Amino acid sequence: MARNLTNAAALFGSARKVIAGGVSSDARRSAGTPLYVDHAAGSRLWDVDGNSYLDYVLGQGPSVLGHCPPEVVGAVADQAGRGMSYAAQHRLEIEVAERLCSMVPSAELVRFNSVGSEAVHGALRLARGHTGRPKVLKFEGHYHGWFDPVLYSLHPALDQAGSADAPVPVPGTLGQPPSAEGDLVVVRWNDLDALKATMAEHRGELAAVIMEPILCNSGAILPSPGYLEGVRDLCDEHGTLLIFDEVITGFRVAPGGAQELLGVTPDLATFGKAMAGGMQASALVGRAAVMETIASGKVGHAGTFNSHPVAMAAANATLTILDEQRDALYGRLETNGRRLMAGLREAAAAAGIPLLVDGVGAAFQTYFTEATEVRDYRDFAGIDRALAARFHAELQDRGVNIVPRGLWLLSTAHTEDDIEETLRAVTAALAAL
Ligand SMILES: Cc1ncc(COP(=O)(O)O)c(C=O)c1O
Ligand SMILES: NCC(=O)CCC(=O)O
Questions:
Q1: To test the ligand 2 pocket, which listed residue (19, 24, 25, 409) has its Cβ within 8 A of the most ligand atoms?
Q2: Which of 20, 172, 183, 366 sees the fewest Cβ atoms within 10 Å?
Q3: Can the keyword Chaperone be found in this entry's annotation (predicted)?
């Protein structure tokens, strides 16, 4: 059952002549004709051939209120008419920073950038500058943007990734400086003993431990009970800063991110995506004593578009709504997400297809596996992803758009009827596998 993609195919032909590879991010490369969006509203996208989709990608996370929430669109339009770019101070940046400091447990001081990768870049530089140490520890399968120091192959084949006890960073691209690898230590996630041993091996060298507090780039995986508390203690013992990369989880899993949901406060945290409801704004937040190293100018931080007025207008409108209606909106995300998760399990059981559905309501993963648990990247890498790719394609043909690797992101605009419509498409897509 293939949908009509005549216009999209023609556009892709034109694009390939002027855009390298025909797409503007490697994450948008597609086995077939990529999605060409004409417009979006609420929980839906419409493509250039008139097909509509219930959207569980949401711009890879930003549109937590759905596409085009009127309050955000209004705030953006109003600000655009008052000036799009100042590279100067303005009221809205203070309002957004105040909102971040009141919503996010670790946020005592804030600096803004445009995208998540930049906020991570700032966090790592600050950690190195503040501690005077050279190395950063990250976890297998965790993604922190496309900048050199953390851009290692996200999903390497396990036979390239070293042993579980001693994983190695696998370069994700040509062109990274060899020095980047020397300053990066990679560890298996959700395994406190492994972290403890590795931190002891690098005693006195580690500026920071960075992680997605709920892993959303290799499945959707919650930390095991006690794990984050153990990581927090180890970081304190070693004088290493703990950074939570909340670019996906921020303002999605709870008003104060995964750190609020899970009750562990990092030293620094990065936010992006959902923070500005669809515009591009990111933030580095943290403990005042650490952020002071930026405040004093000892660690440099800059950017022409930082605290971009239009993005700040979007962030202010988005965060105001999420904060003031927190119970209703986060309750809806959780309830609708759980309903969809349960429906997916039922549909797969009825079709006789082993499917693990795990995560939280606002961000969950469908894994084609007989396993009952996925705890880290090694588990995720062991699952055949060919079926996930086919499921993604079959769903897209039936008007449901998910992140190709099997991640589903909910918005507050998704309704119970949307969930029912999605589950009908799921049943048909599973039957077609
Ligand atoms: C956890 C995480 N950190 C950082 C980034 C980088 O953000 P951006 O693509 O806005 O640079 C992403 C997504 O791309 C992400 O998922
Ligand atoms: N979570 C990973 C992404 O969202 C990547 C998006 C992109 O770089 O296009």
A1: 25
A2: 20
A3: no
